[in-house]
Amino acid sequence: MSPPPFIAAPPLAGLPHGFFGREGGVSAPPFDSLNAGLGTADEPGAVRTNRRRAADALVEGAPLVGLHQVHSPEVVIVEQPWDEADCPRADALVTRTPGLLLGIVTADCAPVLLADREAGIVGAAHAGWRGAIGGVTDRTIGAMLQLGADPRRIRAAIGPCIAQKHYEVGEDMLAPFLEEDPANARFFREGARGRPHFDLESYVAAWLAGAGIGTVWLAGEDSYGQPQRYYSYRRATHADAPDCGRQISLIGIAPAER
């Protein structure tokens, strides 16, 4: 069986990293096939196999470190792998330990991978709208700086997430963004039904730029609009599906990088 396909970000070239989709795994329908979400109703053994397949596609045998994601701005500094049952409740990880792969899972939220290659420090963040407005990317960058990174050297990549045309929201969601900064109105536009649509990808990119990150690469891939390639929680909800898979995004430091 061929390794699962993934998207690599040019600014992160030379580091093991990738944004994986739903192709190339072993999960049966409706999770076919590379479901990496341990919190889903999928068969746990299949999910672990999928996660291992994704990790091995980058660095064979490398420990994969994940989280119990809770849509927060919480960040964890990783020095060594932990047991799956002991995953911290957080939404971002950073490390300077060679040989580890940091993993976050998404199904419409924005996966963000970051690296200061010169310092040998990488990070991964799960940025849904709650985490994004709560500052998850700022806190991820802050943890990287704590380890010795320089914001002028950090490169960031935003992977597949829900596109604005599919992200209809209520006025109750619009309000906190305008309270945080009236200029955030630029990330919303009126949809065909007269309700606001949110541009999550651009909003996350703006936070990264505002933190001094000079290179921010966007995959420009819509998770909702490509059912054969990506899982989408919103698409599953619209279809009254009982559950939804998760795609995984990974980044690490190969031992040779240190």
Written overview of the protein:
By secondary structure, this protein is of the alpha+beta class. The chain has one domain: CNF1/YfiH-like putative cysteine hydrolases. Helix content is 23%, strand content 22%. It contains 6 helices and 13 strands. The chain has helices at residues 44-58, 129-134, 136-147, 171-180, 200-210, 233-238, and strands at 6-7, 17-20, 64-65, 75-78, 92-95, 101-106, 110-116, 121-127, 155-158, 188-190, 196-198, 215-218, 247-252. The strands form 3 sheets. A 6-stranded mixed sheet has the order 4-5-8-7-9-12. A 5-stranded mixed sheet has the order 1-2-13-6-3. The longest helix is centred in the N-terminal third of the chain and has 15 residues, at 44-58. The chain is globular, with a radius of gyration of 17 Å.
Q: What secondary-structure arrangement, pairings included, does this model have?
A:
Blueprint: E1 6-7, E2 17-20, H1 44-58, E3 64-65, E4 75-78, E5 92-95, E6 101-106, E7 110-116, E8 121-127, H2 129-134, H3 136-147, E9 155-158, H4 171-180, E10 188-190, E11 196-198, H5 200-210, E12 215-218, H6 233-238, E13 247-252
Parallel strand pairs: 3-6, 4-5, 9-12
Antiparallel strand pairs: 1-2, 2-13, 5-8, 6-13, 7-8, 7-9, 10-11
